[in-house]
């Protein structure tokens, strides 16, 4: 069941997301984290809250959704580096508890299996999600099986184009594969908080909430999850009836 919260703009979406996240910032909780532009406002608020209120992450664990294949973790656009730059380096989370999938090495399948096992051992209390303009969640592109586990995937051309802005606007520099939690993995999270802002998300938001549950729109499976909150700004909500 999807509960929709409509807000004015990105700043209000980030405020609302933080308000919800705040109740999970407690010892023993497991956070599911995302990269991309969408959660930056939320992470900035978590950092501010840590500094002002000493909210400790020492006994909190986290699992990120995805990582590019073949990008060294020191590369500024690796999701490992993104998370450290925007969140982990500014709070007291233990590095060993802040998991990002590994897209390096010769046995990516093994990395994927181990990642799923870790999540099964520490189920995610709240999963933060963005949504792609094609309806993807994490790097699960249209057509991905709804019961997929963590796996290696080819990125669609639209996702490569969307992400070129982080690689000097040079499509040839964008990795073409990623390791991603599967849709089945994401659906195991106890609660899901998806944030969508901007008019380029309007079609995907409509398909997710009002469309048929169909692998053509990966996010549409969230209609079957028992606890999903979707925060949308006016632009992203503009096609909702
Ligand atoms: P964005 O990406 O947050 O950068 O818009 C979302 C996504 O592709 O899942």
Quick description:
The chain is α/β, with parallel strands linked by helices and 241 residues long. It contains 7 helices and 10 strands. 29% of the residues lie in helices and 17% in strands.
Main beta-sheet strand count, sense and barrel state: 7 strands, parallel
Q: Which kinds of small molecule does this entry bind, naming each only once?
A: 2-phosphoglycolic acid
Strand order of the largest sheet: 1-10-9-6-2-3-5
User: Helix tally?
Assistant: 7
Q: Name the overall outline.
A: globular
Tell me what you see in this structure.
Helix 1 packs across helix 2 (40-53). The protein is an alpha/beta fold. The two termini are 17 Å apart. The protein is built from seven helices and ten strands. Strand 9 (191-196), helix 7 and strand 10 (228-232) form a beta-alpha-beta unit. The protein has a single domain (2-233), classed as Rossmann fold. The strands form two sheets. A seven-stranded parallel beta sheet has the order 1-10-9-6-2-3-5, sandwiched between helices. The protein has a three-stranded antiparallel beta sheet with strand order 4-8-7. The chain binds 2-phosphoglycolic acid.
List keywords for this structure.
single chain, 241 residues, alpha/beta, Rossmann fold, seven-stranded parallel sheet, three-stranded antiparallel sheet, 10 strands, globular, binds 2-phosphoglycolic acid
